[in-house]
Amino acid sequence: MKHTELPHVVRALRDPLHAFVHESRARIAILVSRSGQVLAQHGFTSTYEVMNVASLAAAAHASSNMLADLTHAGHWKHLFHDGAERKMFLATLVTPLEPFVLVVIFDRQSSLGLVQLFFDRLSKTVARLPELQRGVERTDLASFEKDLQAGLERIFPVDAREEV
To answer: Which of 29, 44, 88, 94 is the most exposed place for a label (fewest CB within 10 A)?
Structure first.
């Protein structure tokens, strides 16, 4: 995704992600590109957390896809980790533009079934967004850092960021 398209995509994804969080009763959600570029988030309080989760989500997504290929499992719809207090759901959100990665953290106020139900609804909503219908060139390596910084600045304005 080109740097010039990022603001439109980020704005378009904000409301659907917030609706998903509200409906699914999730605590934290982040939507990133396969390269770890932050597109939307809810529930994080620091840029440091967002950047770490975004890069780890992209890496987990890539490694799970490779494991699926190596084990001839095809494509896994989502990953689920059940912790003592919190649970994590990681899934590919397919769009006409490119696949995105959604990470959801939830607790006992929600359930895997609720998250899956509203993930399916989110997937359909996002796939229909006009901002994701255009054929957009992919980001080259030279502009990746600029795009990443621009995404973070949209999500965490300079005056709201905490020092790391």
So the answer is: 94
Q: Where are the beta strands (DSSP E) in the chain?
A: 28-33, 38-42, 78-82, 87-93, 100-106
How far is residue 66's CA from residue 7's CA, in Å, rounded to a whole number? Answer: 31
**What CATH number has the domain spanning 6-160?**
3.30.450.30
What residues pair up with 92 in beta bridges, in sequence order? Answer: 101
Whole-angstrom CA distances from 36 to 48, 83, 103, 115 are 13, 24, 11, 22
- Could you tell me which residues are beta bridge partners of residue 31? 40, 102
Is the CB of residue 125 less than 8 Å from the CB of residue 136? no
Question: In this predicted structure, what is the pLDDT of residue 158?
Answer: 63
Of 18, 37, 54, the closest CA to residue 154 belongs to 37
